[in-house]
Write a structure and sequence with these properties.
The structure holds three protein chains of three kinds. By secondary structure, chain B is mainly alpha-helical. Chain B has one domain: Four Helix Bundle (Hemerythrin (Met), subunit A), CATH 1.20.120. In chain B, helix 3 runs antiparallel to helix 6. In chain B, 44% of the residues are buried. By secondary structure, chain C is mainly alpha-helical. Classes of the chains: A mainly alpha, B mainly alpha, C mainly alpha. At the B-C interface, helix 2, helix 3 and helix 6 of B face helix 2 of C.
Chain lengths: 221, 252, 59
């Protein structure tokens, strides 16, 4: 377990040293959300109706931004090969990387989301569901995204390729994330949608590291 | 050496099968078109527009069927490293994408007279749209690497991930659709599809399937020939390097 | 002629039915043409290579 923790801490330290990763993701999130009132008009009722969707889609895109570099740096300087030789299984290492990624690129989104929801006039009943759905959903985004990053490692135009691979797979998380918020606002209770998000997370926790590790082994061959 | 034993057998088999597949395809498609355009009666709700169904539904079936086949081939490629499995999956992908595109286009053309709009976010069409992007992602990934084996393996993993996600995507899109669309159920020719419509549908579906098999065989043969060309080129480069080394040694 | 006219008119849905079948012809025919073209190109290239260097048996 300590090897796992070491890896997480290593990635966190690298992220902090490079600095700005979390800040950039948050900045993109905020800026893009702010674009919508300019696009659709400032009318509170309209914004409130589409707020959940805007917040979720933008959070999704923001998480996608930082994924390309997930394995890139380690692969380029050869440390990925060294990590693959470690006794800790590659799948666990992928999990460690995902955890670090989520702490840097997922958690800040959750923290700033209520502020943005305010700007979009999200109905007050939706706030808890928004936070919970993001809490359950963003780790899935990190996990599925890590798999996409591993698959496209070293590919030409890797960044755009990553989006093409990963965005279709994000759709279920998006659907249930928004549905949770809208259900809460409508008074129907967000629980079933949150449970589904949890199920998707559980599935991603199992599938994504396996697929990502297989892809990484491919890249290292 | 064993690597090329199987492909040689495949080349012989496919050479024998192709003419029959081609003829069967032509026959079935001709029969299907005749039934679809001349024999099938107009639907009591949709009139003659129902004839679009005879192209749209088989295309939809093929879109899903080919992806399932790709995933199966990918599993075989990853587990048993069978050289033909990778080639099969990669050859099938553009064909599946084509069927998916056709399904979307004909769906749109069917939707306009039926629902009064060119695009409808109905659960099935939306799922097919996502499937289309799964195909495009696979094709892009396989072609994104300079080394063909890397692309093949990455594609195989993606295809397997895709097939696992496909039911999840379909389920979630279905759910999303029921939340946002009023229940618009239209029935073709009554509560169960009439035999006069079922037969053209099945024959067209069979024709599409055989067309797929024919094209798949052609594309796989092409891929194997391309592999042989690469091997020959590589052998030639090695020969030239070898003889250049010999000349160099003789001169010095 | 009115039989043919009625057939082509497709009960008023001609603008949808015929483009649909045309799309099928274009997509499926296109796939066929593309696959055949690729096949013939590969065959020609292989023949050209084998003329230059006859297929030596691998050791």
């Amino acid at each position: 377990m300590s090897a796992f923790r070491l890896l997480v801490l290593r990635d966190l330290r690298l992220a902090l040293r490079q600095g700005g990763d979390a800040a950039m993701v948050v900045a993109f999130f905020v800026l893009t959300v702010i674009l919508f009132p300019f696009g659709v008009g400032p009318e509170a009722e309209l914004l409130a109706r589409i707020a959940a969707g805007i917040l979720w889609v933008t959070a999704l895109l923001a998480a996608l931004l930082s994924l390309e570099r997930l394995f890139q740096a380690d692969w380029e300087d050869g440390s990925l090969e060294a990590l693959a030789l470690m006794p800790l299984p590659l799948e666990a290492q992928v999990l460690a990387k995902c955890l670090a990624h989520w702490l840097v690129a997922g958690l800040p989104l959750i923290l700033i989301a209520p502020l943005l929801a305010l700007l979009l006039h999200l109905d007050r009943a939706g706030y808890p569901a928004l936070l919970l759905s993001l809490l359950l959903g963003t780790p899935s985004l990190s996990l599925v995204g890590a798999m996409g990053a591993a698959l496209s490692l070293g590919a030409r135009r890797g960044g755009v390729l990553l989006s093409l691979l990963v965005l279709p797979l994000y759709i279920p998380v998006l659907i249930f994330g928004v549905a949770a918020v809208e259900a809460a606002i409508g008074g129907f209770g967000a629980r079933p949608h949150l449970l589904l998000l949890g199920a998707l997370l559980a599935g991603a926790l199992v599938l994504a590291p396996v697929a990502a590790a297989a892809a990484l082994r491919q890249a290292l061959e | 050496m064993q690597r090329f034993a199987n492909p040689a057998r495949f080349m012989r088999l496919s050479a024998a099968m192709l003419p029959w597949c081609g003829r069967a395809t032509a026959l079935l498609l001709a029969a299907g078109l005749y039934l679809a355009l001349f024999v099938a009666p107009p639907d009591y709700q949709q009139g003659e527009a129902v004839r679009i169904m005879f192209v749209h539904v088989p295309a939809a079936w093929m879109a899903s069927f080919v992806y399932a086949l790709m995933a199966l081939a990918s599993a075989v490629a990853l587990i048993w490293r069978h050289p033909l499995a990778d080639i099969g999956a990669q050859s099938a992908a553009p064909l599946g994408a084509g069927f998916t595109l056709l399904c979307l286009v004909t769906g749109s053309l069917w939707g306009e007279p039926m629902w009064g709009t060119w695009w409808v976010w109905d659960a099935r069409l939306t799922s097919v749209l996502v499937l289309f992007f799964l195909y495009l992602g696979y094709i892009a990934l396989v072609n994104a690497f300079d080394e063909p084996t890397r692309g093949a393996r990455a594609g195989a993993i993606l295809a397997l991930v895709g097939i696992v996600n496909l039911p999840i995507i379909k389920f979630s899109v279905d759910w999303w659709n029921t939340l946002h669309q009023p229940a618009s159920v239209f029935r073709l020719g009554g509560p169960t599809i009439a035999a006069s419509m079922l037969w053209p549908l099945l024959i067209m579906a069979l024709g599409f399937t055989l067309l797929f098999v024919t094209l798949l065989l052609i594309r796989m043969r092409t891929a194997l020939i391309a592999a042989k060309i690469r091997a020959l080129r590589l052998a030639e480069v090695e020969r030239e390097a070898h003889s250049a080394a010999l000349r160099h040694r003789a001169a010095s | 002629m009115s039989g043919l006219d009625a057939f082509l008119a497709m009960g008023g849905y001609a603008g949808y039915v015929w483009p649909a079948y045309t799309a099928a012809a274009i997509v499926l025919g296109g796939l066929l043409a593309w696959s055949l073209a690729g096949y013939r190109r590969a065959q020609r290239e292989l023949e050209a290579l084998q003329r230059i260097a006859p297929d030596a048996r691998r050791p």
